[in-house]
Amino acid sequence: MERREKEAVRYLGFGKNAVDDRTLALIRESFEDLDREAGKKSVHRVFDIRQAADDRILIGPMDITSKSLGRNLKGCDKVILFGATLGTGVDRLITRISLTDMAKAAVLQACAAAELEDYCDECQKKIAGAMEEEGRYLRPRFSPGYGDFDIRHQETLMRMLDCAKTIGLTMTDSFMMTPTKSVTALIGAGKMRMNCPESGCETCAKTDCAFRR
Questions:
Q1: What is the pLDDT along the chain (213 residues), one digit of tens a residue?
Q2: Residue boundaries of the structural domains of the chain
Q3: CA–CA dist 207, 213 (Å, integer)
Q4: Given 51, 64, 92, 162, which residue has the most CB atoms within 10 angstroms?
Q5: What's the pTM value of the predicted model, to 2 decimals?
Q6: CA-to-CA distance for 174 and 155, rounded, in angstroms?
Q7: Strands 170-171 and 137-138, how do they pair?
Q8: Domain 3-203 belongs to what architecture?
């Protein structure tokens, strides 16, 4: 299986159990559907960062109190604000399939999550290349809602990226994003190389890492 197929299997909750042939066929069919319907877009901007305390981070107009984010960004002097979406076509596809085939809709949901993660990794790899030319290395993505990083900061983050205009991403009053298969995140950049895996904290065996999400 390719990496995104393995991720879809993980999102479906198979754990260490073998995936059956029917589900694997649905996964591969779902990725083909997603490849046709997705309108992937991303945006990012680089900002200076200041840590006023271990749990207080200042980024432009953002004044964030979060111990977990503070640990993730420790030693960083820059931060990348990042947003990405698979587009409205994916939402329409999932809605349409859910009316007639709930099993495939569940697989589509898992595949879309895996597809979004794969796209974000691809974008981050390009950002990492540009930052390394400046002698800086990236930390794992950290999104509003992780740990004690208040999801309410998502509103300011999206406004700083002008997400509605740049990638067509908006947010409801309850902080749900539209299109739903979208993500926003902060990515720390510092001069210390951490050798974080491209696949992220979820697949990293170093559970005692100070920068873990």
A1: 789 999 999 999 988 778 889 999 999 999 999 999 999 999 999 999 999 999 999 999 999 999 999 999 999 999 999 999 999 999 999 999 999 999 999 999 999 999 999 999 999 999 999 999 999 999 999 999 999 999 999 999 999 999 999 999 999 998 999 999 999 999 999 998 876 555 555 445 455 554 444
A2: 3-203
A3: 10
A4: 64
A5: 0.88
A6: 10
A7: unpaired
A8: 3-Layer(aba) Sandwich (3.40)
